[in-house]
Each structure stands twice: as C-alpha cells, then as structure tokens.
Design brief:
It contains 21 helices and two strands. By secondary structure, it is mainly α. The chain is globular and about 70 Å long.
C-alpha cells in the first residue's frame, strides 16, 4: 500500500473516532488550562471534563446503530458491541466527575486528565481486534489507574497504589509473553483473522495452552477475578471513594469487553483443545465463593465492597461461561445494572464520608434517623447488589441464571450446574454482609448523639435518579434488554 493510500485509510478511520477525539481534545484543554488557571481550577476543569464526556456520549447515541467498520488496517473495529460499552464508560466517567470533590486544588489538573485517559483507553480497548492494540489500550488504562489510586495523598494510599502497580506489572508481563507465544504459533496478532483461527485449529501443542492462559491471566487481573484479585481490597480501602467508584466499574467493564472477544476467539468455534466454557465457569465459581466468603468477615465498608466487587466479577463471567450470544447479552444487561448500583452505593458512601468516619461499619449506627433519604438510597443500592426485588439487580441475576440453566440443559456440563447452585446459595450468603449497614442505619441506636449529616441537593438528586433507574429497570427491563438483543457480535 502506497503512502497516500495509507494516509487516506488513517484519515478515514479517524472520522469514525469522533467520541475519542472529543476526549483527547478535552484532555489537552484540561492540561493547558491547569497550567494557566489560578482560581477555581478544579471546578472549571471538572466542568470541561463532564461536558466532554457527555458530548461523547450523545455522539455515540446519535450514530447508533453502528455498522461495523474496520479501522486502522484491522487494528480496531467499531460496531454496536464496542459502542455499547463505550456508553457505559462515558456514563461512569461523568458520574465520577459529579461525585468528586470540587475544591481540592492540589489534585488539579491531573485528576481530570487521568479520568479522561482511563475512559479513552477503555474505549480503545473495547474496539481492539489486535493484540498490539489490546496491550497499548490496557497500558493507558493501567498506568493512569495506578496513579489515580494514590490520590488520597497519604501513606496508606501510596501503599495501595504501589501494590496495584506491582501486581499489574506482573500481570502485564505474563500477558505480553503469552501474546508473543501466540504470535509464534499463528504468525499474526489479529485474533479475529482467518489465519489466526486456522493456525490454532491445526496446533495442538501444550504451548498453546500456556500462551492462552497467560493472556487470560492479564485480563482477569483487570476485572479483579480470582486468583488475580489480591490488589483490590487494599486499593479500595485506601483510595478516595470517588476514585474507587470509578475503578470498580470502568476498567473492570473494559477488561470484560475484551475478555469476551479473546475468549470467543480462542474458543475456535468450539474446536479448541481447551473447553473455555468450563475454564470461565471455574473462574466465575471461585470469584463468587472467595468474594462473598471474604466479605463476610470485613469490618471496613470499602474493603467489604472490594470483596463484593470480586464476587460481582464472578457473576459477570456467568454469561460468558455459557459461550452463547444469549449469555453474553445477559452479561451486558448485568453490566448496566452493575454500573448503576455500584455508583449508587459509592456515591452515598461519599456523602456519609463528608460527615463521619467510615473506617468501620459500626460508624453507621443510627444514622438513618439523621438523613433518611441518604440512608434509603444506600439501602436500595445494597439490595440491588444482593440481587433482591424490587431492584434491577434481581432481574439481572435472574437472567444470568436463566442462561446458565439453558446452557446446562444443552451441554449437561457438571461444572455449569455446580456454578448455578453455588451462585444461588451465595446470593443468600451475600445478604449477611450487604444488609449489615442498613441494619445499623435503621435499627441500632448510636453510642453518642450524631450531628446532622452534610448533604447536597445535587447529591440527593443523583441518588434519587439512580434509585429510580434501578427500580424502573426491575419493573420494565424489556426496553433495555430489547435494545441489547439487537446488538450482533461476530469476530
């Protein structure tokens, strides 16, 4: 291909990346203004970031449905599947901006830049169709996440950030080595190409097994699934609450989006020497068990939610374990609900944090009487995470278990029925730690008279919107599920 044709191809590809270009432009503007502005820096930079994320969201909606476009010589592909996850990333980004402090000048402009960089990397990752692009996107997300995790500017936060970095470095090294082995076996890094599929179908060496598991290991770290979950509790406990809300959703869903693509690719249309449905089911099973059982003994609410997030990763993987379009669609529905309920819980925790110390669950005793609306919002969020009606968390888990049961009936795989039973039992187990906080809020008397909680109209409005959405999607899930069912995904 001549240089002129290459430039034409690149310029044509850029035309399909308008949301990402908006984020890139906002990132540059925030960087420049951060050097110039002297007063109200954080509030202005947050406003610019919020507008950019909102604009990128509406541009993506405007171009829906998206005909598949191969970009940059097959390095990326823009389609409805990637656009769906991009909408979640943009939503997670501007919700984080809303709940973040507006008067913390020492964090400007780096805080907003890192948020935008992680969202940008997540969008690129969701579109990636080549291992090189996967690695570049993951590193943009990871390096920004390591820094963002230390934004509490204290010793504990620095320690959590360092642990995150060290674990992440090892996971990335494993993934790079796995990719190099896959390249040697297939002769290509394009995991959607016929050459990749045909070469791996003809190869039955143990080296392919090692390479595949090394690649998957790096992605499991990103979604904090067992056994690559050890970084999560320390980071959740030490990082600022708004940052935890962001890291618990956006990088996790980005990792999940690319994990779907790579697992389906390595599955080789069911011809792989590895039964990937079984592998994913085992990881899902262990994540649910370890996450829920570890959360039971936690006394710090953020650390408890860290283990809860590990269990939620297990539930996300249930749809992928079926290796079916129906299961993946149900996992995508769960992704939406996961974003809403996670942000509701962390947004309310942030409001409590403005008035009290939340180092221990016992600090919530009797506070439901001081601010009923705030306590009620937290109650709904925790009920949704448990998977109980009348919230969409119940609907999402019901759909996942439905797809799991259908997959078991088709395959008669013993691991699927074990996952089904363990998932149901652990939904009950999660009641014992999710409802600790509501019990203390409404039924316990505080040891001392508590001062009135600091709340804001904007914060209460955000909580109300998220509560209404969770209840509405329980009452009428067909609209969202029907929209997701229209998303076709072919490697």
């Amino acid at each position: 291909m001549e240089l002129k044709d290459q430039l034409t191809s690149i310029s044509g590809s850029l035309g399909h990346l308008l949301p990402e270009l908006i984020l890139l432009a906002a990132l540059v503007i925030v960087l420049v203004l951060g050097l110039i502005l002297k007063k109200n820096k954080q509030a202005i930079l947050h406003a610019i970031s919020f507008i950019a994320l909102l604009l990128a969201f509406f541009v993506t909606i405007k171009n829906w449905p998206q005909q598949p476009h191969s970009l940059f010589g097959g390095m990326m592909r823009l389609d409805d599947f990637s656009s769906f996850f991009k909408l979640l990333f943009f939503t997670g980004g501007f919700l984080t901006i809303i709940i973040s402090p507006k008067k913390e000048e020492r964090a400007a402009p780096e805080y907003a830049i890192l948020i935008l960089a992680i969202v940008l990397g997540s969008c690129l990752l969701a579109m990636s169709m080549n291992f090189v692009m996967v690695l570049l996107s993951l590193e943009l997300i990871s390096l920004s996440s390591y820094v963002l995790a230390g934004f509490a500017f204290d010793r504990k936060s620095a320690e959590g950030s360092l642990k995150y970095f060290l674990f992440g470095t090892v996971a990335t090294a494993c993934m790079i080595y796995g990719m190099s082995l896959i390249y040697g076996l297939s002769g290509t890094l394009d995991f959607s190409s016929n050459q990749f599929i045909e070469a791996l179908m003809d190869n039955h060496s143990e080296l392919l097994v090692v390479a595949s598991f090394l690649i998957i290991a790096g992605l499991l770290f990103k979604i904090s699934a067992v056994p690559f979950h050890l970084w999560a509790p320390d980071v959740y406990e030490s990082a600022p609450t708004a940052v935890v809300a962001f890291l618990s959703v956006v990088p996790k869903l980005a990792g999940f989006a690319i994990l779907i693509k790579i697992v389906l690719s390595l599955n080789l249309f069911g011809q792989s020497m590895i039964t990937w449905g079984t592998v994913v089911a085992v990881i899902s099973l262990l994540s649910i068990l370890v996450g829920n059982l570890s959360a039971l003994v936690q006394t710090n609410p953020k650390r408890m939610l860290a283990y809860s997030s590990i269990a939620q990763s297990g539930f996300l993987l249930i749809g992928l374990a079926t290796i079916s379009m129906e299961g993946i669609h149900f996992s995508m529905f769960y992704s939406v609900i996961f974003l809403l309920m996670n942000f509701l819980v962390f947004a309310t925790l942030k409001q409590f944090e403005n008035s009290i110390s939340i180092e221990s669950i016992n600090n919530f005793s009797g506070l439901g009487r001081n601010s009923f609306l705030l306590a009620f919002s937290l109650l709904i969020g925790l009920i949704a995470l448990t998977g109980l009606p009348p919230t969409a968390g119940f609907t999402a888990k019901l759909l996942l278990f439905t797809s799991l049961w259908s997959a078991y009936q088709d395959s008669q795989s013993i691991i699927l029925i074990i996952l089904f039973i363990v998932g149901l039992v652990n939904t009950v187990v999660s009641l014992f730690y999710y409802l600790k906080i509501p019990y203390l809020l409404f039924l316990k008397v505080p040891a001392t008279e508590a001062a009135p909680l600091k709340t804001s109209y904007s914060g209460n409005l955000l909580h109300l919107i998220l509560v209404v959405m969770l209840i509405y999607l329980f009452l009428a899930p067909s609209g969202l599920m029907g929209w997701i069912n229209q998303i076709t995904f072919v490697l």
